[in-house]
Amino acid sequence: MKTYFLKRILSLIPVLFVVSIVIFLIIHITPGDPAAMLLGEEATDEDIHQLRVQMGLDEPLVVQYFHWITEAVQGDLGTSYFMKEPVMVSILSHLAPTISVAIMAGIISLLISIPIGILAATKRGTNTDRTVMGFSLIGMSVPSFLLGLFLILLFGVKLQWLPVAGYRPITAGLFEHIKYLILPSIALGSMHAALIARMTRSSLLEVLNMNYIKTARSKGVGEFLLIMRHTLRNAFLPILTVIGQTFGSLIAGAVVTETIFNIPGIGQLIINSVERRDYAVIQGVVLFVTFTYVLINLLVDLLYGVVDPRVRLSKK
Amino acid sequence: MNPEKLLEVKRLRTHFKTETGRVTAVDDVSFHVNKGEILGIVGESGCGKSVTSQSILRLFDEKYLVKYEGEIIFKNEIDLLKLSKAQMRQARGNEISMIFQDPLSSLNPVLTIGFQIAEAIMLHENTSKEEAMAQAVEMLRLTGIPSPEKRVHDYPHQLSGGMRQRVMIAMSLACKPRLLIADEPTTALDVTIQSQILDLIEDINKRFDMGVIFITHDLGVVAELCDRVVVMYLGQIVEEADIYNLFENPKHPYTKGLIQSIPHMDGDREEELHVIAGTVPSLENVPVGCRFAPRCQFADEQCNSQAPELRGIGDGQKVRCWHAEQIAERKEEVYATS
Amino acid sequence: MQVIQEDNSTFQDDFKQAKKRLKKQQKQLLFRRIMRNRGIVIGGSTMIFLSLFALFGPLIVSYDPYEMIVTDRLKAPGGDYLLGTDNFGRDLLTRMAYGARVSLSVGLSVALLSCLLGMIIGLLASYFRSLDNILMRICDGLMAIPGVLLAIALVAALGPKKENVIIALTIVFIPNVARVVRSAAIVVREETYIEAIRAQGAKTWRIIVLHIAPNTVAPLVVQASFIFADAIITEAALSFLGAGIPAPDPSWGNILHDGKVVIFTAWWMTVFPGILIVLSVLGLNLLGDGIRDYIDPHTTK
Known about the structure:
The complex is a heterotrimer of chains A (316), B (338) and C (301).
Chain A: H1 2-10, H2 12-26, H3 34-39, H4 45-55, H5 61-73, H6 87-122, H7 127-141, H8 144-159, H9 174-208, H10 211-219, H11 223-261, H12 266-276, H13 279-307, H14 309-312
Helix pairs in contact in A: 1-13, 2-13, 6-7, 6-9, 6-11, 6-12, 6-13, 7-9, 8-9, 8-11, 9-11, 10-11, 11-12, 11-13, 12-13
Chain B: E1 5-18, E2 21-34, E3 38-42, H1 49-56, E4 66-74, E5 78-79, H2 85-91, E6 96-99, H3 103-106, H4 113-124, H5 129-142, H6 148-151, H7 161-173, E7 179-183, H8 191-208, E8 211-216, H9 219-225, E9 228-233, E10 236-242, H10 243-248, H11 253-260, H12 301-305, E11 311-312, E12 318-319, H13 324-329
Parallel strand pairs in B: 3-8, 3-9, 6-7, 7-8
Antiparallel strand pairs in B: 1-2, 1-4, 4-5, 9-10, 10-12, 11-12
Helix pairs in contact in B: 4-5, 4-7, 5-7, 7-8
Chain C: H1 2-36, H2 38-60, H3 92-127, H4 129-144, H5 147-158, H6 162-189, H7 192-199, H8 204-212, H9 217-241, H10 252-261, H11 268-295
Helix pairs in contact in C: 2-3, 2-11, 3-4, 3-6, 3-9, 3-10, 4-6, 5-6, 6-9, 9-10, 9-11, 10-11
């Protein structure tokens, strides 16, 4: 298992290397001079030149990359030109709401999707199954920002049960904190819930066709234990992959959802930075989120080993 | 003195619902197994032998997939097809158990083999988990697995193919069932392992006086193991005979063809193997008359238009053929060589 | 002799007719198989409807998509304006029709471009083992970056223009295509007939283009319809966030962006373009699923 862990962790190095190069290059594909863009039209050549030196743009690309990456590895993502503070500081101060939304969306989507997927699989071919699958197809076709807008319309205009904008930190009380997170989390989680429900269903159906399920039946195992004990654990591996992938993308999705609900997370940070052409922040946020995403996928992969004895026991 | 019947299948039909309509995979099948007897069911793949065996345990999804007709009488009293779902579950693994062709895919990869055996015990007997695990070790020992105390904690992928089939057998024996159904249990194994497993099944059959239904396409295995044999073709039984009569006096042209297609170790090396001409028709369009007629060189008008019944011809032998008596007389090789 | 010839010619006539009949039957069968596939029928007709809306809608509507009539701001649906007006007094239906052109053309261009480039990369990777490792690592890296973020960053760097949105989204989706094509191509590459063709001395590019590429088309078409849908979503999200198609050009995402400010007074600005986005994504997803089922009926849904 240790070799499996080690292999999996080492395999991230080339991925992260490519990621860093792509993100580094983003600023350099800008047509024109980023320094000139930052300063606007009234800047003198002198000012621009000064900023170029300050940003290190006068050095060769390789040198610039080398500087940038050695600092990034140490957690220094540069300085925001607009906010005059280290990018890392900006990110960290915007991080809590994003993580809250992502976690809450993850919890809600799992709580809905897995039972629904199991239900559809055990009632395969019935109207229950068709209804669940129909809803999940619609769920997959409504992008989160759109669902967010619809929810605001429904709750803000019609029902008025839940706050439709804003954010309360957890220090304002857990109930208050969650109340503000419910709508954004539903908006963000619905697509993932639909996807996971489908995956759960098809994965369970696949396992239910396996020979060992027939063996279990021939032993006299009842339907309930058949699902809980013999099917779920086997079906869980592919489900886990999807959960891992979607959990990572929840963070990215939160970026969009936040803007709709006026939540001051890293989504707002990057959107504001796009308007301000604050490239260091854009780069920093993308790098940070990607790193988190990769890390979550890694954790999911490592979880594989715990669930599947075929992985856990291979070459100890 | 008639031996006591353990299981009697009467006019069993198993219909599958498919997109294009109903397919009858097992059509009017009747046979019985005596206590302590090994009954072989032989036939090519797709002849309905596996479906028959799984119908006995009612393993198919009765809600959407399958419809059974007929009777399956167990121990002269219970009709398995009339049991409720819960009652049927109690019978499975406890009274009747089953082993399958491919032991690797038939064992759950994420559960230890010890647990999988103990589970069968816990489902049917009021035992604690520790006790059931202890019994599992005993069952593994009985089936000849070395150092079973250690092996119980293994997962299926850690064992060899032969060992896995022993685990399957241990699991099926765990509750001392009266009937064991073995569905091609040796097909996926090496030849040497094969004979070990056959010996084990024979040993268990003798030791516990347990009835066995042994399903195979291999007549060689049948000759080695079975007391009586049922030959199936395209969802129907075409011949039933004891092991002696089957090989010495086969009455049905299909049985004859099967026997002639066995390679002989001691025979003339130059001699070519016999092959039954033609292919098995699909279940969706079975011939009107005798189902074997299109491949039978003796088929005449009657065979092509009227379906023969399975009829007794003395000495416990039954055959489904209009011309069984005349064909049996003919000594020459029945089928063209190819 | 003559008799035989006559026989022969009638036989050939029969043969020709039989062949014709068979071909006709085959066509009918194909048609019936397609019509039985609900995904293709429903998804396909939805997309045809939306395409017609994009093509002919702007010709039929009677307003200018850019002209602001200040006195007619935020008119509710009905009356002069069928679907109401936006906060600048522009007819919503008109903007939605022009927006359909933008949104669908961005989606289609991204689907076509990323499929073309992804196919080239996937084929190269599948055939040249030395390239495979490098190309696939680059794909891994690109796929590790969440698509929306990469798109936001790329558009921010390139500048908010329709062409740049297409470029950014194409870069985002190329790796998916490359992976699909590569895995389909590798299966074919291992076939013996490719070995046989190579042994006959065929040129490498000929093998790739004539023998390997056609086998990757089926999964590619399925992938294309999903990318089309994803591209529509992402473009709408970018424009909604103000980081995509620049105002005042209409796109469905842009209309939503304008509508967000007045969501409590003008629900129509959110609901109608929203429905169009959902319809097109649903239609493309159904179409993709349908085509996949059609190509390979054994896949579990």
